[in-house]
Design goal:
By secondary structure, the protein is mainly beta. The strands form 2 sheets. Strands 2, 4, 5, 6, 9, 10 and 11 form a 7-stranded mixed beta sheet that branches. The protein is globular and about 40 Å long. The protein is built from no helices and 11 strands.
């Protein structure tokens, strides 16, 4: 049972990244999924969540209009498309299913 994130990296302000989280070992389509992030010295915070079939989505105010969460239940994968990135988006991004965390992927926004 695991979640494996990928797609992080270094990007300039205004740039884009797409994070992926591949799930295995459980019935992915039965669970809502979320993305969290944790910046240095700060608490882990919810970035976005998506319901089991994708019909209900929520975002943190700080990312609304810039980030898009989606999922492909056939591929057991949840995505986070991040556009118009800002330096304050720099953090380790974690995928979350109830009771299960991924290892995280670093996103750094810097010129």
């Amino acid at each position: 049972v695991q979640l494996v994130e990928s797609g992080g990296g270094l990007v300039q302000p205004g740039g884009s990244l797409r994070l992926s989280c591949a799930a295995s070992g459980f019935t992915f389509s039965s669970f809502a999924m979320s993305w969290y992030r944790q910046a240095p010295g700060k608490e882990r915070e919810l970035v976005a969540g998506i319901s089991r079939a994708g019909g209900n989505i929520n975002y943190a105010d700080s990312v609304k209009g810039r980030f898009t969460i989606s999922r492909d239940n056939a591929k057991n994968t949840v995505y986070l498309q991040m556009n118009s990135l800002k330096p304050e988006d720099t953090a380790v991004y974690y995928c979350y299913a109830p009771g299960l965390w991924g290892q995280g992927t670093q996103v750094t926004v810097s010129s």
